[in-house]
Amino acid sequence: MNRNSAINRIRNDSEPFDVVIIGGGASGLGAAVDAAARGHSVALFEQSDFAKGTSSRSTKLVHGGVRYLQQGNVSLVLEALRERGRLTRNAPHLVRSQAFVIPNYSWWEGPFYGIGMKVYDQLAGKLGLAPSRHLSREETIKQIPTVEQKNLIGGVIYHDGQFDDSRLAVNLAQTATDLGAVVVNYCKCVGLVKENDVVCGVEIKDTETGDEYQVRARSVINATGVFVDDVRRMDEPKAKNIVAVSQGIHIVLPKSFLPGNAAIMIPKTADGRVLFAVPWHDHVVVGTTDTPLNEHSLEPRALPEEKEFVMSHARKYLAKDPSDSDVLSIFAGLRPLVKAGDGSDTAALSRDHTIMISGSGLITLTGGKWTTYRKMAEDVIDQAETLGGFDSKPCQTKDLQIHGWTKAVIEESNLKPYGADAHKIKELAVADSTLQSKVHPDLNLTKAEVVWHARHEMARTVEDVLARRSRSLLLNAKASIEAAPYVADILGKELHQSAEWESEQVAAYTSLAKEYVFSL
Fold first, then answer.
1. Phi and psi angles of residue 37, each rounded to the nearest 5 degrees, phi first
2. Strand, helix or coil at 300?
């Protein structure tokens, strides 16, 4: 995956693409993979980096949605459980089964949640991960030894999926590229091309060089998450918002706060929310909130009341109360929640995601979640084929192995997320022993990995490396700031940048990462 090669194709290709996709998050990348796997010509443009927004800021779960089951939304749960099973098969290097324990503090919680999880098991069918069961008080403590034990009666254990979201995004970009798609980051859509009031392409600006391109297409998909309304207004200036923005935040704690392998799931907090404490990369992710916002941005920030909510509940359910100084990082993500159309659009709904087609033919895909990204992609490419007038071909992604696929055991913890590419990173370190060292003693990231990110994963900035190619920013914000100069030095050499560029990168990253350091 090479950015210069991708830009050259955009510059030199004269034929229109079958599909142009605006947005490089889960839904856009999934659509690129689906379309390319069917044999269509595809170009995808992301204004920043892949998964920069919502798609790198999730709770790191591939799940059917226990709360949707409580709401009686069985069809949504069924779809999500099927997709969970497929993703576990198609990306085993990134997705794994995770045990969750629901601690019971009242006599009715055991049978109530126990029955609910048995229904969850049955809905998963042959794609289930492991059966749920009741736990005694002693078994519950054995599974989650740091759970609050006062008034603890027992628990219920069930299994869902866990993954690394931005690593999956990078692998989807690589998969699309492997299948012949043109996938480019730091290219912003600045306008739509129309002929006879029909959308037939996009105007793109390369934010690295300032160069602009007009890219023709038989169909254009707007998959920009919380920014879909901005793109819709390029098409229809008076279009009403269809997305309401909700924010969720998470804190990251040291592994000592949840030393076992099981996660904690609280299905209903005092204000009706779901709370998770999940082991992830030898740390613990605790969240989340659900706060309506009136604004959207690429760098959302946790609100004081959200910080207080998560910290107070972490202290309520963990025997060892985390202090502010224990928090290694805090991050916020925005969710696009669909409101309604504006009357001039036609809509094809799939319960949790929405596909809208404007009068001029702009296709908008929004809503949904990581777990169902593949089904969202299948649905939107079906629509694009019909609208674009090119050959309709069957979806190929139900069993498509995602880039990096392997079932081989990778011993090195830092290399596991790379899957089949891990041995290539080892070869870099063997060829140059200076690349074997870590960029920081408290980060599980080697210099060889940074070189790999630049050469093969289209990393263009220090933030790309420390926030999304690795998860250093989320796992230890302070350490990542200290590592920034070393990463900038490597990137500067790989991307043939100046010392001034390196200094600017360190300053920009430091400013950003300071916002991930917890403070009330």
1. -65, -25
2. coil
Q: How far apart are CA 349 and CA 338, in angstroms?
A: 11
42 and 103 inside one domain: no
- For residue 307, give both structure tokens: 């910080």
Q: Into how many domains does the chain fold?
A: 3
For tokens 């959200």, the residue is 306
Helices (H) and strands (E) in the chain, counts: 16, 19
The pTM assigned to this predicted structure is 0.95
Q: What is the CATH number of the domain that holds 352?
A: 3.50.50.60
Q: Is residue 301 part of a domain?
A: yes
Kindly give the residue spans of alpha helices, DSSP state H, lying in 91-181. Answer: 109-124, 137-143, 165-178
pLDDT tens digits, 197-255: 999 999 999 999 999 999 999 999 999 999 999 999 999 999 999 998 999 999 999 99
Residue 128 lies in a domain: yes
d(C-alpha 281, C-alpha 40), whole Å: 37
* Cα separation, 83 vs 78, whole angstroms: 9
420 & 293 share domain:
no
Q: Which helix (H) or strand (E) holds 224?
A: none
Per DSSP, the three-state class of 263 is strand
CATH of the domain at 431: 1.10.8.870
* Omega of the bond leading into 366 within 30 degrees of 0 (cis): no
pLDDT tens for each residue of 468-512: 999 999 999 999 999 999 999 999 999 999 999 999 999 999 999
In the 8-state DSSP scheme, what is residue 83?
H
Q: Are 296 and 374 within one domain?
A: no
Domain residues for the domain of 470 are 416-516
Residues 255 and 367 placed together within one structural domain of the fold: no
